[in-house]
Protein 1
Amino acid sequence: MKHEINTDPVLQIDSLVKSFGNNRVLNGFNLKLYEGENLVVMGKSGSGKSVMIKCLVGLMHADSGTITIRGKDITMMRPQELDILRTEIGFLFQGSALYDSMTVRENLEFPLRRHKERLRIRESNINLVKEALENVGLSEAIDLMPAELSGGMKRRVALARALILKPKIILYDEPTTGLDPITAKEIIELMRTIQKKYSTSSLIITHDVDCARVISNKIILLINGVNYIEGTYKQLVQSTDPLVKAFFK
Ligand SMILES: Nc1ncnc2c1ncn2[C@@H]1O[C@H](COP(=O)(O)OP(=O)(O)OP(=O)(O)O)[C@@H](O)[C@H]1O
Ligand SMILES: [Mg+2]
């Protein structure tokens, strides 16, 4: 691929190892995300996808391996540096993870309050909140509580919150899981719109084959802690390997 020759990855994982007791979840996992790319990681439940993404954002510490974001090794970073880097990365948690006691507006203001001074954001919070909600088509929900939202609406709000600092890299952990097929499609469309609007690079974790088909430039299958196979959707659906076929049937 031409961009692999011309540019460095915006995000790179090398030989990531992570165990919990005797359970070795990641056993030398590798990944390279290039600018503007939609990279999908698929793997069955319990294969370590969320563990991988948590290591990426520093919520978990890997046993070994390196994680480089924009050329900086995050495994060597102090908490303060890591905090700054986090503002460049949007993270959509598995299952939305909104603060239940806060309104939609307060949920969106949370990352702003935390990082605004350092980021020297000039715009008022309320304008940024409104823009983020407009992006996900939920302007009218600004004063609602999470309990008043449907599952699909919650996912949209979580997406708006992940985007509010206009990150260049977005990590999605199961963006469509638990949603009906139509709502899932809407979320996928939103992800595409947002990528075009802000030219972000995305790492998408999913076991939704439709999502992978529509959105991926490249797919990595995570099996037994390693990259079992990598390729485009087209390449992977044509695979005759039973383990790969099981995903795309
Ligand atoms: N904090 C933890 N302590 C102990 N074991 C953990 C912890 N977090 C994850 N694990 C284990 O690591 C493995 C991978 O979990 P992970 O959540 O990454 O799976 P996943 O691929 O995201 O699955 P799903 O598709 O269901 O979200 C599981 O066996 C899980 O039990
Ligand atoms: Mg998970």
Protein 2
Amino acid sequence: MKNKKNEEISEEDITEEVHFEIDKDAFKGPFPCCNKTTTKKNKSISHRGFEFHYGVWHCSKCDKEYLDTEQAKRLENFWVLERLLDDKLITIKRSMNFDGKTYFFRFPKELSSHWSRESSVKIKLLTPEKFLVEIQS
Ligand SMILES: [Zn+2]
């Protein structure tokens, strides 16, 4: 995917980057399937020399695999890392604003439309100029 600038970003761009929805309820295994109980199975994927291990709940009858919330979040982080390494993350360029005291920038409304004042922001420092910002609703 090519990088997009400023207002060129659309809702479509954002949703196509989401691989799956993580259920808000704590999804915990083992999950029932085929009138049986699934069992834990270790899996791994590798990308550019990085090996990532995760676990799924496996049904021995139909071969279906289920991800619990924790593993789904870990896998999602790995996919983010994968896109970061391939330089395939959607990039939005914004102008820096300054109100005399604080620097700030605005998020596109396509991203912020479902945020609320009750949401909190978790900022992880990668380098002094690079951050990982997570909106927690
Ligand atoms: Zn099954």
